[in-house]
Specification:
heterodimer, A: mainly beta, twelve-stranded mixed sheet, five-stranded mixed sheet, 17 strands, globular, B: mainly alpha
Chain lengths: ~250, ~350
């Protein structure tokens, strides 16, 4: 029997996890993740705060929505612990992200790994199968895209001003299965005694510099993931270190 | 304070106050649960947990929707400005006129598939349909009535006493149950049987013009893409043909109506209005929040050539529009042909949505 053993709803983040149904077990523990959107430690206030990227462009962010999937706790006492069928939708403008992973075997862990985006099978699954609160329900995430036959994995939108140029808008809709990005957040976690809350930053500055400087003016200010001269490929390549663990606390 | 804000504040306070004073509202013990049929391909959705649909609740909401008793002088009902044959809009009028002969400033919004929506009115100022339903009653330029007086009028009528008892287990109407009943009825407004839907189900086929219109609709405006696109899908994509956000689509450089900005008080929200669904769009003319475009061709011409690049808070999705889409007149005709396939005659003429009187 399968059931939804975790359904966390906080702010504008919707997470649904499906895993084996098990009774309450003192040998299991839960880990919550709380995601804050920053730009090099400065809080991002959507529509308002200005940030300067590596290329010297002044940015105002208006939208950052993304889908995460396939969470795995790393380096546990019996190896990695994958949580099959785990998905999260993050609407960064709507509030801080928050998700919960339940039924984790107690132990010391070295980090967590997950995907930004979805595997091909899920990406092209029938979106009408997902329940009203499920992260992959198109009415929840507003990221399903008939045009590509799948989901937008990350929607990043805003305005930019390149030095000497007028302000303009930018829009990057990162889609297509080939643009799924696995990320690893390394952080020692003692999950032996109490349920824990891990604070994680999503640092938007990384997308514009690491490993390659991304100038909106030079690369292009919009992409829907096709016919874009490699814009989305370059952005996804810079997303490996956007997530950073900050600290772990008891819940 | 703007009079519409006074209405919003008073409706919210009244409903909250009544809710606090009375026992918990819910469906009558012997009411009949109603299961809403979700069209194939639509996202799953559920009615509000505190207002499960019942046959009796929907029937009451239907009576209320069509009864001019809701207005001060008993001359206007909800249906006066929301006519089913026009996609529940106001007979093609640019603005609606209230009971005192005062004309509004925004176009009557089309009503369909509200189950999937959470921002109501063009400026998104209400987040729940049961509250939205009450506001035109107290709006001084619409029905210009008060909720206590409406409730008193309803409570004097035996047929409403019976209808409220059947729906909510008490013959005594309240502002809260009035809103819940109207919400139930309007949540049944599901449009998902247009030619487009039948083509998607494989029972019909598009004409060549409609098919090309669909391709333009879902195509991006991208100079690198050899196939021309009209970029409609960004805001009007998916089976609901809207992302239901509040966005500035580049109509003006200076706003006479701040839209969402008036609601939030933020300049960064100025010029943002709700993206309407395009289902039944051929019959919901005129277009835009202020009804400035009489025809679909005029509306498409705006996107093709007239998007104001320096419009404050222009939605980033409009980035492909600011230099023009380059659509030909034939392209526009094909787009219109496709949009006309979104007309759902079975919705517009559904007897379940017609007046019960």
């Amino acid at each position: 029997m399968k059931n939804a053993n975790v359904l966390a709803l906080a702010g504008f983040v919707f997470i649904g996890l499906l895993s084996s149904c098990e009774p309450n077990n003192p040998e299991k523990i839960s880990l919550a993740l709380h995601v804050e959107t920053t730009f090099d430690n400065a809080p991002v206030v959507f529509d308002v705060s200005q940030h300067v990227n590596q290329a010297g462009e002044t940015l105002v962010f208006k939208r950052l929505d993304y889908l995460l999937s396939d969470f795995t706790l790393l380096g546990g006492p019996n190896g990695d612990v994958g949580i099959k069928g785990s998905y999260a939708f993050v609407n960064a403008k709507g509030g801080a992200g928050h998700l919960e992973l339940d039924s984790i075997p107690v132990g010391q862990y070295t980090g967590i790994r997950f995907n930004i985006g979805l595997d091909s099978m899920v990406n092209h699954s029938d979106p009408s199968q997902y329940g009203p609160g499920h992260p992959l329900n198109p009415n929840v995430n507003r990221l399903h895209w008939d045009w590509t036959g799948g989901y937008i994995f990350t929607a990043l939108e805003g305005t930019y001003k390149h030095p000497g140029h007028p302000e303009s808008v930018f829009l990057y809709h990162m889609a297509l299965s080939k643009n799924k990005r696995s990320v690893t957040v390394s952080f020692p976690m003692d999950l032996t005694k109490r349920d824990k809350l891990l604070h994680v930053d999503y640092n938007l500055a990384e997308i514009f510099r690491n490993p390659a400087t991304f100038s909106i003016e030079e690369k292009g200010d919009f992409s829907h993931s096709t016919f874009d001269n490699g814009i989305v490929e370059a952005l996804v390549a810079n997303m490996g270190d956007v997530f950073t663990a900050k600290h772990l606390q008891n819940k | 304070m703007n009079r519409r804000w006074i209405v919003l504040a008073s409706v919210t306070a009244l409903v909250a106050g009544i809710a606090a004073c009375e026992k918990e509202i819910g469906p009558a013990k012997n009411s009949t649960p109603y299961t809403l049929e979700i069209p194939m391909g639509f996202p799953q959705a559920a009615p509000p947990a505190d207002n499960p649909l019942t046959v009796e609740g929907i029937a009451l909401g239907r009576m209320l929707f069509y009864d001019p008793i809701l207005s001060q002088d008993s001359t206007q009902s909800c249906s006066s400005c929301h006519n089913a044959e026009f996609g529940f809009t106001d007979f093609g009028k640019k603005y609606s006129t209230g009971i005192d002969g005062i004309e509004g400033t925004r176009n009557s919004m089309p009503i369909s598939n509200l189950l999937w929506q959470s921002d109501f009115f063009w400026d998104g100022r209400v987040k729940r349909l049961n509250l939205q339903a009450l506001m035109p009653i107290e709006d001084p330029i619409e029905m210009h009535e008060t909720l206590p007086r409406v409730v008193a009028k309803l409570n004097r009528q035996p047929r409403y006493q019976e209808a409220f008892r059947a729906a909510f287990g008490t013959k005594k109407a309240s502002a809260e149950t009035l809103g819940l009943a109207l919400e139930q009825f309007m949540l049944t407004f599901v449009s998902g049987n247009s030619k487009f839907d039948r083509v998607m189900r494989g029972t019909e086929t598009f004409t060549a013009s409609e098919q090309r219109g669909l391709q333009l609709f879902n195509g991006e405006s991208n100079p690198n893409n050899p196939v021309r696109g009209a970029d409609c899908f960004h805001c009007h994509g998916g089976t609901l043909f809207s992302n239901f956000t509040l966005s500035n689509n580049g109509l003006d450089s200076v706003f006479t109506d701040r839209g969402l900005g008036k609601v939030t008080g933020k300049a960064t929200d100025d010029g943002k209005f709700k993206v309407p669904s395009l289902r039944n769009v051929a019959v919901t003319f005129p277009y835009m929040h202020d009804g400035r475009f009489q025809t679909l061709r005029q509306a498409i011409e705006h996107y093709n050539t007239d998007v104001v690049a320096n419009s404050p808070n222009l939605d980033p999705s409009m980035v492909g529009f600011v230099n023009g889409l380059g659509l030909t007149q034939q392209d526009i005709s094909d787009l219109i042909a496709f949009l006309e396939t979104l007309t759902d005659e079975s919705y517009l003429n559904n007897p379940a949505y017609a007046s019960p009187f």
